[in-house]
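job 3f2a | input accepted
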Amino acid sequence: MSESNVKRWAWAEVNLAAYANNIQSLKTLVAPSEVWAVVKANAYGHGAVPIAKSALTAGASGLCVALSGEVVELRNAGVKAPILVLSQQPYESLPILLQHAATHTVYSIEYVDELVKHAVALGVSQVPVHIKIDTGMHRVGVAPQLLTELVHHVQELSPCISLEGIYTHFANADEPEHPANNEQRRLFAESLNQLGHLSESLKIHSCNSAAAIRFPQERRSLVRVGISSYGLSPGPELTDDCRDLEPVMSLKARVSHVHVVQPGQGVSYGHRAIAEEECVVATIPIGYADGVPRKLWSEGGEVLIGGRRFPIMGVITMDQLMVNCGPVGHCQVAVGDEVVFIGKQGSEVITATDWAQALGTIAYEVTCGIGARIERQYVEVHH
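job 3f2a | predicted structure (383 res):
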């Protein structure tokens, strides 16, 4: 058997039809603004290349990534669309970014100068840049009071550097009523006003998924959609707004072992789970090295087998975990049965958001955490 045919009894299904539908729905919502798909972090765990290609086919105008290596991966896969890198990168990565026609985020004069130096050395004649303004996220960006100086510096270096866009990022868009949202809007508008007519010829953008959905007046030239494109809500206050979007990723496995545990016997490391009655326990070959958080068992984590919910039993181990399938005689679970961790089986559904709520985190962390050794299988399932 060839190496490519060796299958593991744990995998993720990524529904490209659902993803394309989500992009089209978001495109309709924000029209006439463009949609740029955020595919950083391996497309939030979904697989950067298939997702990027699906996004562009579905009508996205560009892509957003975080790292130079992510640009290279997409270009090597034949992606021609604009790719915006969302922060300044190490100087030593600038040649590779220039060679792969990235669109650069800049927010310091020193970085712009370094970009020009490498562009001249490589004979690259026109480098598109977007200036990032820090209006209150306080992560990266030029301070609003220094914007004019940076814009003038970029303009002096034209045509080597081509100012294509100006943008910012909301820190609290997933809480639409948060007072900081209005303050960031005000600062961004004031910053653009400093530039006069120049801003009319640029791509202006500020919206992530949450802002794109809830702040129509901020959609401007384009919106950057990440979590919503994967069919997940940016936060609890936007759940209703996202009800027509479909989760794109399912996480599945197969039962690898079935055994009976007696009352009083402990299961898994530390025997932190003790059987209260004789029960059937199924072992599933997936664990925390694959992105199933170790403490999910103690926070009410469940799986679906045969369309029924069963609780995870005992501490999740690196490569395997156990599930309590109930009393002997009441359970028909067998080796090879499909197990759904995230996704739908019968009439039951478990979502990445369910995991996030149980674990006190966000759905982004759940999908990004699905490990590289979990094969992504791409399907086109229309509902």
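job 3f2a | The radius of gyration is 24 Å.
job 3f2a | closed
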